[in-house]
Amino acid sequence: xxxxNTVVRDGARLVGDNTDxxxxxxxxxxxxxxxxxxxxxxxxxxxxxxxxxxxxALFALHTLGVPRVRVFNRTAERARExxxxxxxxxxxxxxxxxxxxxxxxxxxxxxxxxSDLCLPDALFGGVGVALDMAYKPRWTPLLEVASRRxxxxxxxxxxxxxxxxxQMERWTGAVAPAKCMGDAVHAKYNEEx
Length: 193
Hints:
- The structure is a single chain.
- By secondary structure, this protein is of the alpha/beta class.
- It contains 6 helices and 8 strands.
- The chain has helices spanning 20-35, 52-64, 76-86, 141-148, 156-172, 178-192; strands at residues 6-10, 13-17, 44-48, 68-72, 92-96, 107-110, 129-132, 152-154.
- A 6-stranded parallel sheet has the order 5-4-3-6-7-8, sandwiched between helices. Strands 1-2 form a two-stranded antiparallel ribbon.
- β1 (6-10) and β2 form a beta hairpin.
């Protein structure tokens, strides 16, 4: 992936790992079922952003078998660098310089902090799922527009919990108490947001 969010001990060595992609995979699988969205192997996706989290998003989409992905970033050259690196994993991986040019995606993954990015309604045709890694605020502009268009939505806090479960399991070697962890995170999150 080229991005580390978890460090584990392997004997005397410390090894970098990434659990964001596992969290994205788990959340998108569930959301796909709930929303009755297109099968991953027949779908196209859009990744918004070109930083470390977008790397995890691309690897997650590859893991799910999504063949066609477009990447949008405000700095197109950074998106092109990312696409060059990840292109071998996909049948088609391209950069779009305008979000309007990314219509037709059944899955949209936002990997940038919640912003004032203008999201055209044309992005949200048919049935789909929008996942936003940002968790402040709970309802990001991406999720608000997707919800209005009757798409399935995945809040960033859900991915945060899912990847945290996998982190704990990597750190401890034990099965994480997923329900307890989720309840605790949601209780604290609901107090603040």
